[in-house]
Write a structure and sequence with these properties.
This protein has a single domain (about 15-65), classed as LysM domain (Membrane-bound Lytic Murein Transglycosylase D, Chain A), CATH 3.10.350. About 20% of the residues lie in helices and about 35% in strands. It has helices at about 30-35, 40-45; strands at about 1-5, 10, 15-20, 60-65. A two-stranded antiparallel sheet has the order 1-2.
Length: about 70
């Protein structure tokens, strides 16, 4: 199913997460993405609702999946 805009249909989908990581003290989105060999685009694609300025210890981040 997709969204329709001016006669064009766009694919709309939700990211799917295959593996998660619990944030530890000192972690940042950048350090986690490096640890799991993800580009910023990949990390953000599988974590669309994460505010990287407000991650907290114990928060689950997706580290493998599809956007």
């Amino acid at each position: 199913m997709g969204a329709r805009f001016h006669g064009v249909t766009f694919k709309t989908s939700s990211p799917e997460c295959d593996s998660v990581f619990g944030v530890q003290s000192g972690d940042t989105c950048f350090s986690v993405s490096q640890q799991f060999n993800l580009t910023s685009e990949e990390f953000n694609g599988i974590n669309p609702n994460i505010d990287c300025l407000k991650i907290f210890v114990g928060q689950w981040l997706c580290v493998a999946g599809t956007a």
